[in-house]
Give the backbone structure.
Amino acid sequence: MEITVVSAPEQIKPSVWQRSSWWAKVWNYLSIQAWGKLPAQRQRSISASYARIYDQPWSRHIITPYCWWHYPEKNYLDQFKPPNGKASFETFQDFFTREFIDAPQPQSPWAWPCEGTLCHLGEVAEIPHSNVKGDIRTVEQIFGLEVGDIPSDYHFSNVFLHNKNYHRIHAPVSGRITRIQHIPEELVILRPWIYKENPSVPAFRNERINIDIEDIDGHTWYLSIVGGPAVGTIELPERIQLGATVDLLEELAVFYLGSTCCMAAPVKSYAYESYTEVEMGMPY
């Protein structure tokens, strides 16, 4: 496969998601020791009830002030359209699941699958284990696999999607889907700044959908689409099925509130520092 060399994208910029250590400790306690002690089914029930707030017609009035608060561009929303063929944004959930009018076009053979804060990256072998209620888990278990299933020199990344981010996940590479797996676990808080030593803690224990894509060189790209509190559902388009062929940047999934996307890739990304912002379609 002939690869086009692309310069590191200038859009990569520092994230604002840094918090004081004492505040992080408070939220870590609330997430793991309080909320995290609830049974997973109870977490899902509470999250689903909360998510329904954003399906109410009155919630559409939140959209305009929310955009003013979070985006410097006055016409930010003009690049998007309501989901599912709707003529207008009828609820805040419609804004949350917005679609691009003109989707970003790939500039390299590999691209970032989503928009958000790159909160964790490194070789698979370097990612620390996680203790989940006495069960020691390795990075492979994020993707529903066993130790050694992913080559140790693969490159791991975790992108945290804030509520303001575009919440659709796209294919980072063209290829064939070789595995789809649903892991129905917990829904602890996703915010990476509350897990200082290991920002990927939620990915080890939360509900997720794993998708493997084999590229034309026979290398597998591992994706884990991770939910969090208030996630109503993670929805896959009808054609995203085992054995399906997908094109670079084709849509793979949409989140209904709260999300993180982990990836284990056979190539290294351009973004070498944690807590930078990446955009869907940006050269990986």
Notes: The first strand starts at residue 13 and ends at 14. Residues 1-9 have pLDDT under 50 and may be disordered.
